[in-house]
Amino acid sequence: MSQIYYRNDAVQDGFPAGAVCRMCRALKAAGFAWVSAWLMIACSAPARNEPDRSAGVPRAADAVSARVAAVVVPEHERRLAGVLGIVSFEGADTPFKLLNEDGSIWRKLKYTDQRSRDSVEMFGFHPDYYIMQFKCTGKYKNRYRILVHERLGIEKWISRGADVAFQSWEQYLLEQVFALDPDMKSNPPRAAPDDHASEMLPNIEYPVFRPVAVSGDWVSVEWDDQDEVKHVGWFRWRRDDQLIVYIYSFA
Fold first, then answer.
1. How does pLDDT run across 157-208, given as a tens digit for each residue?
2. pTM
3. How many CB atoms lie within 10 A of CB 243?
4. Are 16 and 24 in contact (CB under 8 A)?
């Protein structure tokens, strides 16, 4: 059986968006340790990364009107072969340099510059929190290789830094994701991470599945039924290097 990663065990390489933000470190360095400590507590909840509303992505709570029989994930987002995890850029005014293989600058990407944003295709874009996310396909010394345009297969490099962080899939699912939405017909919650385990069909029409642990291609989720009783089960988040659940980053 694959190693199981639990929410509290998730550790990030770079800034841990779900635990300590860049502002915490800056305040502590400036001598405001008590403010930093307060912010660390406030930030200890899973990161609230808002989907791009312009793309028509609903909140998890709006799934009542959005959910369909089969969960549809865009084809280019489903492909996970060779993807190590997610690289996040955080910062409204920081110009991020996307590099060619030889280290020369391919393009500068800035959150506030829509033209530069339109030149790439992100895995996640969360405007309320100044976060841009890309799939990571490689790490070498102080750089990450990222997919800057998935449908065209364009890969570039980004240097590590205080505003750039890598997360494995386990870390991403446990630290950045609020809820997951599976296809209830082909991928229902089960009592164990096994395709032959008994099904645990919720008695509520639109449950919100919150990830609490990850084991290989399976994710353990918790949800409340119509009587507000908490349940815990498992379903696949990935199958044959394909993402098969819809991700909600924000409550």
1. 999 988 999 999 999 999 989 999 999 999 999 999 999 999 999 988 889 9
2. 0.72
3. 18
4. no
